[in-house]
Specification:
It is a single chain. With 195 residues, this protein is α/β, with parallel strands linked by helices. The chain has five helices and eleven strands; from the N terminus they run E-H-E-E-H-H-E-H-E-E-E-E-E-E-E-H. The longest helix has 14 residues. The structure holds glutamine. Glutamine binds next to helix 4.
Length: 195
């Protein structure tokens, strides 16, 4: 039995928990999902998800609750981590915004709200390296990745700008993979490497 942690200071917790369960099911794994709201839970987790929301709020709460250090240790231990949208911003090396205290567990810089107001939210069928069929990706005030460090693989892009990346055990998406029934991103991040 694996323990999955979903950071629950803000964002789509129930949807991510459901997607993790579906992905685990498909890979023949059983998983218990824990919500992470305070320090002490992350060290017991085998896999970890940081959802979207508002990156300034999430990073502030992570620091306040002292979860930030636990997340850095978790990533450094090589355990699988999926960070989505605001989660990607928080996980980055630099978000170009002093109000976001980044975790620096993913060697990328990001541009917040890169798609601007006109394209606030949109859906795109994305070709993602590692997935056979396109993925229905929902973008909501999404960031893009600007600068990609040496160990970072770009898995997908929109108009030539990276929107899905992997650095070893850490997968980041600018979109919200929990908003459709398609749990393949959760599978890719958490179970494909070990299956
Ligand atoms: N625009 C948000 C931010 O900068 C992210 C949006 C999201 O997570 N859907 O934090």
């Amino acid at each position: 039995m694996l323990t999955a942690g979903v950071v629950a200071v803000q964002g789509d917790v129930a949807e991510h928990a459901a997607a993790i369960r579906r992905a685990a099911d498909r890979h023949g794994e059983s998983v218990a999902v824990e919500t992470v709201r305070a320090a002490g839970t992350v060290p017991d987790c085998d896999l970890l998800l940081v959802p979207g929301g508002e990156s300034t709020t999430i990073s502030g709460l992570l620091a306040e609750e002292r979860i930030d250090e636990e997340l850095r240790a978790f990533a450094a231990a090589g355990k699988p981590m999926l960070v989505t949208c605001a989660g990607l911003i928080v996980a980055s090396r630099d978000a170009g915004d002093d109000r976001v205290a980044t975790l620096d567990v993913l060697d990328v810089t990001v541009d917040r709200n890169a798609f601007g107001r006109q394209a606030d939210s949109f859906e795109a069928d994305l070709d993602i390296s590692g997935l056979e069929e396109p993925f229905p990706a929902v973008f909501i005030r999404a960031p893009v990745v600007d600068d990609v460090g040496e160990g970072v693989e770009v898995l997908a892009g929109v108009d030539g700008r990276p929107v899905a990346v992997r650095q070893d055990n850490v997968v980041g998406t600018a979109f919200h993979p929990e908003l459709t029934d398609d749990a393949r991103i959760h599978g890719l991040a958490f179970f494909d490497g070990s299956a």
